[in-house]
Description:
By secondary structure, this protein is of the alpha/beta class. The protein has helices at 7-18, 22-35, 43-61, 93-101, 146-151, 167-179, 213-224, 241-252, 280-287, 289-294; strands spanning 82-86, 118-124, 127-133, 155-161, 183-185, 197-199, 201-206, 230-232, 254-259, 272-275, 297-301, 310-312, 323-327. Strands 2-3-1-4-7-8 form a 6-stranded mixed beta sheet, with helices on both faces. Strand 11 and strand 12 (310-312) form a beta hairpin. The longest helix is centred in the first third of the chain and has 19 residues, at 43-61. The model is unreliable at 66-70 (pLDDT under 50). The structure holds guanosine-5'-diphosphate and magnesium ion (MG). Magnesium ion is lined by residues 93-94, 113-114, 133. Magnesium ion (MG) binds at residues 93-94, 113-114, 133.
Amino acid sequence: MPANLTPxxxxxxxxxxxxxxxxxxLMALEEMFRIIPKHKGTERMQGEIKHKISQxxxxxxxxxxxxxxxxxxxxxxNGYPQVVVVGPPNxxxxxxxxELSGADLKVADYPFTTRMPQPAMMPYENIxxxxxxxxxxxxxxxxxxxxxxxxxxxxxxxxVDLASDDALDTVDVIYDSLxxxxxxxxxxxxxxxxxxxVKPTLLVGNKKDVPQAKDVYEMxxxxxxxxFPCLTVSAVSKEGLSDLKQNIFxxxxxxxxxxxxxxxxxxxxxxxxxxxxxxVVELADHIHHDLAKTLKSARVWGAQGYIDGQRxxxxxxxxxGNIVELET
Length: 328
Ligand SMILES: Nc1nc2c(ncn2[C@@H]2O[C@H](COP(=O)(O)OP(=O)(O)O)[C@@H](O)[C@H]2O)c(=O)[nH]1
Ligand SMILES: [Mg+2]
């Protein structure tokens, strides 16, 4: 019986053949096993893949003499709000980030195109938000440095492939893989303890343009909308992208403050980005530690319930869009 292997399978196999590290080999094998057409004609191949997976796992779990911890990647946010995009292979992570940022990331119709985290800047109104493209998280495989990247992000986009039959499973795979490292997407059942990271997360169904997307998205919403805010986009037709940008800003829970030197106008295009809930004294501290110490008073424009230019207390909680004059 012919095996009828798909182009995706052949690409994964090619990746396996070229893989230099046991981690890459294992990931490729896991993916090959996941996508190989499951019928009589491929039974032997399935068996061989399974065997190779178990051999590699055995080798990896054996303690290595003198081995050092595997070096990982980190992505410096450079002070920008940082959004890490995670998802299964081929969900369109790179394509989506390219569309949102204008960066030219490698997009391809086969798994494992993205091998290391890749930052790209997304303009949103008058600020920049850093998006981070990542390699796929597949069943039983996640790069060892991925939980660290997710842990240090300000928020996560969990991208689901609405063109895939196993869209639902991939959400659990990703949630559970990260959970093993005590990184939780949006919610943790039970109490939060020291060392846990619970990351604000948007679940985004991509490929809205494909015919089955509507049904798959409905299924995804039904199962997950209690756990995640859900929305759907198409990185190809660009539908839903501006809504997604607004939701990213909302989920980041940040405010833009325009500092105004006394007697001068505020600069409308270079706000200071701060977490929601920030006070006047925290703004001063953000600008310069000494400023917080010498701060005498502050006046605010655009604050609800206050007249423009009114003096506010040091613990006044700033709102998005406020203009603030700090007096020392
Ligand atoms: N129809 C459709 N295809 C998409 C969309 N987004 C990405 N793709 C395709 O899906 C494949 C995988 O995209 P890529 O960004 O490399 O996925 P990644 O592995 O998650 O980074 C490519 O062939 C893309 O052109 C979309 O919104 N609609
Ligand atoms: Mg990619």
